């Protein structure tokens, strides 16, 4: 990577710390998630150009940073990016990969890929951890919002079943839900029809789709 590219892909948080964006992990309706030169730090950048929406999003993330999510395997925002960029940092243990990889390996290698990636036993253990995390969050009167295999990170090694949820900027109290932006194929029917906002029920729908897959 040239010095020009290094400068172009360098971002700063509001504390003045610099991070180099190294690999794009995924992109959704609200933004893009990047790996950085720190293996335990991911960055989500907000891509909506509307100044009003950017302001509302930053307010939502700032609110989330003040919430108590202790005991939950949810990668909470730890710092905002320095303006003019809109985004935040989240800490995540090393050695994880998106849960979507479990779907990809089956598409690529069929039943052999399914068995080599842990088979049904590993998938059930991962689903149990996901269900437990959501249950604890719902027990606090909150919903996660946009749940998909790209927002769930699991151990890259098949003998382990660590699980963390990322991209948490839609987490909100069910009584005051965040804007209902969802990943196609994982949004509950009432979200798709524009008849409801995020809730524990829409979380349960997304979980059921993932479990079925």
Overview of the structural elements:
- A hairpin with a 5-residue loop joins strand 1 and strand 2 (18-27).
- It is globular, with a radius of gyration of 17 Å.
- The model is unreliable at 1-7 (pLDDT under 50).
- It has helices at 3-8, 51-65, 100-116, 119-139, 189-192, 200-212; strands at residues 10-12, 18-27, 31-36, 41-46, 77-80, 87-91, 96-98, 142-143, 152-155, 163-165, 172-173.
- A six-stranded antiparallel β-sheet has the order 1-2-3-4-6-5.
- By secondary structure, it is an alpha+beta fold.
- Helix 4 (119-139) packs antiparallel against helix 6.
- The protein is built from six helices and eleven strands.
- Helices cover 36% and strands 23% of the residues.
Topology readout:
Blueprint: H1 3-8, E1 10-12, E2 18-27, E3 31-36, E4 41-46, H2 51-65, E5 77-80, E6 87-91, E7 96-98, H3 100-116, H4 119-139, E8 142-143, E9 152-155, E10 163-165, E11 172-173, H5 189-192, H6 200-212
Antiparallel strand pairs: 1-2, 2-3, 3-4, 4-6, 5-6, 7-9, 8-11, 9-10
Helix pairs in contact: 4-6
């Amino acid at each position: 990577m040239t010095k020009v590219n290094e400068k172009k892909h360098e971002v700063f948080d509001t504390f003045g710390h610099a991070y180099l964006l190294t690999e794009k992990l995924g992109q959704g309706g609200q933004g893009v998630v990047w790996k950085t030169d720190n293996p335990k730090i991911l960055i989500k950048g907000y891509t909506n150009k509307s100044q009003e929406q950017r302001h509302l999003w930053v307010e939502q993330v700032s609110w989330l940073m003040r919430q108590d999510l202790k005991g939950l395997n949810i990668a909470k925002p730890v710092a905002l990016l320095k303006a003019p960029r809109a985004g935040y940092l989240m800490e995540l243990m090393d050695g994880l990969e998106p849960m979507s990889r479990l779907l990809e390996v089956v598409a690529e290698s069929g039943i052999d890929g399914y068995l080599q990636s842990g088979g049904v036993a590993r998938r059930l253990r991962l689903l149990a951890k996901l269900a437990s995390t959501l249950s604890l969050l719902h027990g606090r009167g909150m919903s996660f919002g946009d749940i998909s295999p790209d927002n769930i990170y699991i151990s890259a090694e098949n003998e382990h079943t660590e699980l963390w949820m990322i991209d948490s900027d839609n987490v909100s109290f069910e009584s005051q839900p965040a804007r209902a932006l969802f990943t196609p194929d994982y949004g509950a029917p009432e979200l798709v029809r524009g008849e409801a906002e995020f809730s524990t029920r829409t979380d349960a729908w997304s979980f059921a789709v993932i479990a079925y897959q």
